[in-house]
Design brief:
One of its GO terms (cellular component) is cytoplasm. A hairpin with a 4-residue loop joins strand 1 and strand 2. Among the domains are: about 70 residues, no CATH class; about 110 residues; about 80 residues, no CATH class. The chain contains 26 helices and 16 strands. Helix content is about 55%, strand content about 10%.
Length: about 750
């Protein structure tokens, strides 16, 4: 403050002598107007004394000097106010902050997952803080992976990514490979025996005789089949073999040339492969002694499975377990179940005593599908084709009991154990491997819907018998079935599409988008309609990303990045936050990706309307707002695994690992080319040179699409340059030509009929 306290005291004395408060305040205001205000000065006692005469700062704007000084001195002398003390500077030593109340807010939504153990959406609560232990049933590797596998593993990959990357859980994901199983044993023997048969090159007469013998036993199998779908499949196989045999029989009756007979025999051999393989296994399977075939087959198909998963952008598990590597642990697991009183040995095999387990007060059998308990057809399918003979069934105390350990028969692999040489049962494999790694209780167990009973119910029973608990799994998640154009998909029915074949038709992203557009727990129909919806969504999102990239490429100085928001920006931003809240609510609701994609589509539609309005008004859209929206959508699609990590905004161009470099490297050159083309077009229009305009159109319509480049001309606006998937561009070009040709044909037809053309 200018001037010492001694200099100010006389002035204050005369001011304090004024009796009328209003006049005193005016005099004080005039005095203060002659003094300079310095923030942070040392207060004099005279300052404090004069302002303590005021109960509050004046409200008259003309007295702003007094008001300003009052508030400053009040802040400097502020303190705790005692009860009953006066207000203002008179009580500065007793001042305190007013009481603060938190906002009411709203209850945050919690993640709920559909739990097969309750058949309800349960709040997800991990057992150990933020850590989530998760076991997923892997494939039985004896043949090519198909779209049924993709249904499960893409769906679980999406769930895993959402829990890890969106909800920020620390997920430990374990998956198994079943490389010891009745299907593998049977297929390995069949392949081995058929190759031996082929190598012997049987004469045509011998081949025909063997095929007819195989058809007789096949007919018996066909007559015993009651399942209508399976019966229809077997009838197709039978008919195909009979049709392939007829030309060979005719050739032999007609004494055709040896080359012709050999060619027809080769056709029959290939067509009858499955039939002959099954017959050879039934007659000679027990004589197979080369145990290496039982490891070679699953090793090959496991490798193919991993290649398929990588091609589908499915994350690898944190740990992978193979049954063949855990046989000692499985033997110990079975032994403890026997020791706990829930298993019994019979003729070299060991079975689980379902009646003993179910009668225990602490246990319950058939938690997932109690209504299926006692279903002998399902139980026998779970035991395997090689384990349902009459002698095997007679070894059980109850038809509902299931094998923990199987005594090996001739032609089967075996491992030593306390009960004699044998091999693991199917259900025990997952229990032993998951129990070894995840302990007595895991948070999540996943698998396909068809595994609920008996496989998963038996897993639960034997694991809880081993650990003597009732909570081996907290949340059981089952992915829905996959149908093909409305028909049941089944490898055993030979009605399936391999993952490799599916990827020849559509990209991994398109398949994943199709899955995202459906609930993970419901049936998904893999059809042309389903895939068309996925393709349209991908194209819709990609166009938005390309438009935003074009806006962001426009040159602007650093301050120009931040523009004033008008009402349109405020409305779009409000909608953006509303959609983000809806996305969060949908993910909390059993990871409802279908609703998420609908909300994302609606958000993009609103952005498109905003950009169109700005374009019509010849005004630039707000680049920062659109970039924020595009980055959010990119982030969500990355979480779902639909965008590779390399892409910073939108879908990558040119495949994984190349998108970022390709776009950042090529686009500046394309931009220069576009600007040069615009200049040439302008001159050509002014000089009226149509040939140059035609060349310019050819560059846009014919040449650049072949390179994956799209130019979009807009009247009065700069040309938009977009890097797009080449195949997509070529399809667009062909569709335009088709539509154009149809229009021309239609017009000619009208003219021929003498009808005038009306244009609107």
């Amino acid at each position: 403050m200018a001037g010492s306290s001694g200099e100010q005291a006389p002035a204050y004395t005369s001011i304090l002598g004024i009796s009328d408060e209003a006049a005193r305040v005016r005099a004080l205001n005039e005095h203060l107007s002659t003094r300079s205000y310095v923030h942070g000065y040392s207060l004099s006692q005279a300052d404090v004394d004069v302002f303590r005469q005021l109960s509050a700062p004046p409200t008259d704007v003309q007295l702003f000097h007094v008001a300003r000084w009052f508030r400053h001195i009040e802040a400097v002398l502020g303190g705790v106010r005692g009860v009953g003390e006066p207000h203002g500077l008179q009580a500065s030593k007793g001042r305190r902050q007013p009481q603060w109340s938190p906002p009411t807010g709203s209850e945050p939504c919690k993640l709920r997952l559909y739990n097969s153990l309750t058949r309800n959406k349960d709040v997800f609560i991990p057992q150990n803080g933020n850590r989530v232990t998760w076991y997923c049933c892997g494939p039985t590797v004896y043949d090519a992976s198909h779209m049924g596998h993709a249904r499960s593993y893409i769906s679980f990959d999406i769930l895993r990514r959402v829990l890890r990357d969106y909800f920020k859980f620390d997920v430990f994901y374990c998956m198994n490979i079943t490389d010891i199983d009745d299907k593998i044993i049977k297929r390995a023997r069949q392949n081995c025996l058929f190759e031996r048969y082929r190598e012997r090159r049987p004469p045509a007469a011998q081949l025909l005789e063997d095929v007819h013998t195989a058809l007789k036993s096949f007919s018996v199998k066909l007559d015993e089949t009651t399942d209508p779908d399976k019966k229809q499949m077997l009838e197709r196989v039978q008919l195909a073999v009979q049709l392939a045999a007829a030309p060979l029989e005719e050739a032999m009756r007609s004494n055709l040339a040896a080359e012709d007979i050999a060619r027809r025999a080769q056709v029959l051999l290939e067509e009858a492969k499955d039939l002959l393989s099954d017959w050879l296994d039934c007659t000679l399977g027990s004589e197979v002694t080369d145990n290496s075939i039982f490891s070679k087959l699953p090793k090959f198909w496991e490798g193919e499975f991993h290649k398929d998963m990588e091609a589908l952008n499915v994350l690898p598990p944190d740990v992978l377990t193979r049954v063949s590597e855990y046989v000692p642990e499985i033997v110990n697991f079975v032994q403890k179940i026997v020791d706990n009183g829930y298993g019994y040995a019979s003729n070299g095999s060991v079975y689980f005593d379902t009646a003993k387990f179910a009668s225990s007060e602490r246990h319950s059998y058939g938690k997932l599908v109690p209504e299926a308990v006692g279903d002998q057809k399902a139980l026998q399918e779970g035991e395997g084709d090689l384990s349902i003979s009459a002698d095997r069934l007679s070894e059980k105390r109850s038809p509902s009991d299931f094998a923990l350990w199987k005594a090996s028969k001739p032609g089967e692999p075996s491992w030593p154990c306390p009960w004699g040489k044998g091999r693991p049962g199917w259900h025990i494999e997952c229990s032993a491997m998951a129990g070894t790694l995840l302990g007595a209780s895991m948070d999540i167990h996943g698998g396909g819907f068809d595994l609920r009973f008996p496989h998963h119910d038996n897993e639960l029973a034997q694991s809880e018998a081993y650990f003597e608990n009732d909570c081996w799994v907290r949340y059981f998640l089952h992915t829905g079935h996959l149908t093909i154009a409305g028909c049941k998909m089944s490898k055993s029915l030979k009605n399936f599409i391999t993952i490799k074949d599916a990827l020849k038709q559509h990209s991994a992203r398109q398949l994943r988008l199709a899955f995202l557009m459906h609930s993970w727990k419901d049936t998904l129909d893999y059809s042309s309609n389903t895939m068309e919806s996925a393709l349209q969504f991908e194209k819709f999102m990609n166009e938005f990303f390309l438009n935003v990239k074009d806006i962001l490429r426009a040159p602007v100085d650093i301050t120009g990045q931040f523009e004033k928001w008008e009402e349109e920006e405020a409305e779009l931003n409000e909608s953006f936050y509303s959609k983000k809240a809806a996305v969060h609510a949908a993910l909390c609701d059993n990871v409802d990706t279908r609703t998420v994609l609908e909300e994302m589509r609606a958000l993009v539609s609103q952005c498109n309307l905003y950009m169109a309005a700005r374009k019509a008004a010849r005004r630039r859209p707000n680049r920062a707002l659109l970039e924020t929206v595009a980055l959010y959508l990119t982030h969500m699609l990355k979480i779902f695994g639909a965008i590779e990590e390399e892409s910073s905004l939108g879908f990558p161009v040119g495949g994984p690992g190349t998108s970022l470099n390709l776009e950042s490297t090529v686009m500046p050159y394309l931009q220069v080319l576009s600007e040069f083309r615009e200049g040439v077009r302008k001159i050509a229009r002014e000089k009226k040179v149509p040939e140059v305009l035609q060349l310019s159109d050819a560059l846009r319509d014919d040449i650049l699409p072949e390179l994956g480049v799209r130019l979009e001309d807009h009247e009065g606006l700069p040309t938009v340059v977009k890097l797009v998937d080449r195949e997509m561009l070529l399809k667009e070009r062909e569709e335009k030509k088709r539509v154009s040709k149809t229009g021309v044909t239609w017009a000619r037809g009208l003219l021929k009929m003498g009808k005038p053309l009306a244009f609107t």
